[in-house]
């Protein structure tokens, strides 16, 4: 297994639209293992392939306290089953150190494939629902900072650009 480098905002590669996964092979399983290792090491609850510069439609999530509930979603889509919104303070491994409140539909039905290509569906609510929506946004080149004010987003961009210059 290997830890992969996580792209950080405002890297333009975070804006790419990911392509569907069509091949369910050993290489995909290695990618999934690397994504979990990278996410757990960075103390994250969700990671989309886009964030490690792999532009394919898959994501990994574990919102459990004990980090004992790894979930893999390949080619995920969701439908809103309740228009009611939930607010969470969202963060992102690609926007380190910044958190902002975002509202998203509270209950969704997710359709995806597992690592063998087998289709499955599940309903999600609360933090899991928010996290799935946040990660699917990554596959479409979107970030949680797109939902906050331009002023706040620009401030975050400036601070991160300064950090990146320091470590370059
Ligand atoms: C998305 O985000 C999410 O700034 C997953 O310094 C987050 O795993 C959905 C993280 C919150 C819903 C609510 C962020 C780790 C992890 C940081 C993450 C940081 C270290 C973010
Ligand atoms: Co994110």
List the helices and strands and how they pair.
Elements: H1 26-41, E1 46-48, E2 58-61, E3 71-90, E4 100-113, E5 119-125, H2 126-139, H3 150-167
Antiparallel strand pairs: 1-2, 2-3, 3-4, 4-5
Bound molecules: 2-phenylethyl (2E)-3-(3,4-dihydroxyphenyl)prop-2-enoate (QAP) and cobalt (II) ion.
Overview of this protein structure:
The chain has 168 residues and is α+β, with helices and mostly antiparallel strands. The protein is 29% helix and 29% strand. It is built from 3 helices and 5 strands. The protein has helices spanning 26-41, 126-139, 150-167, and strands at 46-48, 58-61, 71-90, 100-113, 119-125. A 5-stranded antiparallel beta sheet has the order 1-2-3-4-5. Cobalt (II) ion is lined by residues 92-94, 134, 138.
Keywords:
binds 2-phenylethyl (2E)-3-(3,4-dihydroxyphenyl)prop-2-enoate, 3 helices, 168 residues, binds cobalt (II) ion
Q: Which cofactor or ligand species appear?
A: 2-phenylethyl (2E)-3-(3,4-dihydroxyphenyl)prop-2-enoate, cobalt (II) ion
> Structural class from helices and strands?
alpha+beta
Instruction: Quote the beta fraction.
Output: 25-35%
Give helix and strand order, one letter per element, not per position. HEEEEEHH
The largest beta-sheet arranges its strands as 1-2-3-4-5
Largest sheet, if any?
A: 5 strands, antiparallel
Helix content: 25-40%
């Amino acid at each position: 297994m290997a830890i992969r480098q996580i792209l950080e905002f405002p890297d333009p590669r975070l804006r790419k639209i990911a392509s569907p996964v069509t091949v369910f092979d050993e290489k995909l399983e290695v990618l999934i293992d690397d994504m979990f290792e990278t996410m757990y090491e960075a103390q994250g609850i969700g990671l989309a392939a886009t964030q490690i510069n792999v532009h394919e439609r898959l994501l990994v999530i574990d919102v459990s306290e004990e980090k004992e509930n790894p979930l893999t979603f390949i080619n995920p889509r969701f439908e809103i089953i309740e228009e009611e919104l939930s607010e969470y303070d969202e963060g992102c491994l690609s926007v380190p150190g910044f958190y902002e409140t975002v509202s998203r539909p509270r209950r969704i039905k997710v359709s995806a494939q597992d690592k063998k290509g087998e289709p499955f569906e599940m309903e999600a609510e609360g933090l899991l629902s928010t996290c799935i929506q946040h990660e699917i946004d990554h596959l479409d080149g979107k970030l949680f900072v797109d939902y906050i004010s331009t002023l706040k987003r620009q401030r975050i961009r400036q601070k991160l650009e300064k950090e990146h210059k320091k470590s370059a």
